[in-house]
Amino acid sequence: MEHCHLYDLGGSGIKIGTITLPSDDKVTNHIIVNNSIIHHGGYIFPCSVGLIIFHGSNNEITHNEIADFRYSAISAGWVWGYAHSPSKCNKIEFNHLHHLGWGELCDMGGVYTLGASEGTTVRNNVIHHVYSYDYGGWGLYTDEGSFGILMENNLVYVCKNSGFHQHYGRKNIIRNNIFALNLKAQLQVSRDEEQLSFTFTNNIVYFNRGDLLLGNVDRWKRLTVDMDHNCYWNTRVKGIDFYGMTYPEWKKLNRDTHSIIADPLFVNPEQYDFRFRNQSVAKKIKFKSFDYSQAGVYGSEEWLTKARLSPELLQEFNDVIK
């Protein structure tokens, strides 16, 4: 499926796979959805996802524009917890996912994952303006049992609850992302477990409101996680509050031993320009610069224009956030 425009939808745009787990693991596979626009959905069923992979593997969701839905943009996996799931090796890359939620529903994400998903990659996406009714307006959301997922080179900003949230899962890799200007917090966890929940390395976290962490201070202390070589910057104060802990206290928990607290030197973050004035700070955490302008559809100017939301709709969304 390529170069398609789906819009004015009562429900979802695209459904891949079935909700019934097959006995032989023969699931829908190798579906490609590329360079397509999926806009203005969930008008009758607001809980609809822009594009959802139920039980499916080796699918490629790339260079799509998904916006103006009342729920998540992309969802992958359909097994809650650590039971067997055949949804593996799905590629979710270079998508532009934005203006989601509209303050109507809870528990959503720009990219939502569920269950064991070894080999799945969530890479080079731009996710922004995710606004839930109450809890759960997240950018990257690894929900129950998410396992073996790589999330890297994503730009996530202006999400209500946090840019990244893990309910519970194991051995997910969150690296080389930019989480910026999210509203309540930047990072959140909802359950701690003895096994390695995730690694969080080489990320830039930049914020001007809310907290760095969300999800109960004791949970963050108990969490089995590998966090290091990150850059944190709160524009309001010189230091960083790690859920009531100073940076030295935080490091005593074997967190962020080689991380830094420094301005990452974005060009104009308040106007969502996250290019670097220079990369001197980014290099200190071995951050690898990526061209986030490549996310979304490509082609003629007419096609690119069709992907843009109207100024009136953008203003309407901003009024909801206010």
UniProtKB/TrEMBL annotation:
Signal peptide: none annotated. This is Right handed beta helix domain-containing protein. Residues 29-182 form the Right handed beta helix domain. Gene3D superfamilies: Single-stranded right-handed beta-helix, Pectin lyase-like. InterPro entries: Beta_helix, Pectin_lyas_fold, Pectin_lyase_fold/virulence. PANTHER family: RIGHT HANDED BETA HELIX DOMAIN-CONTAINING PROTEIN, SECRETED PROTEIN-RELATED. It holds the Pfam family Beta_helix. It comes from Candidatus Ordinivivax streblomastigis.
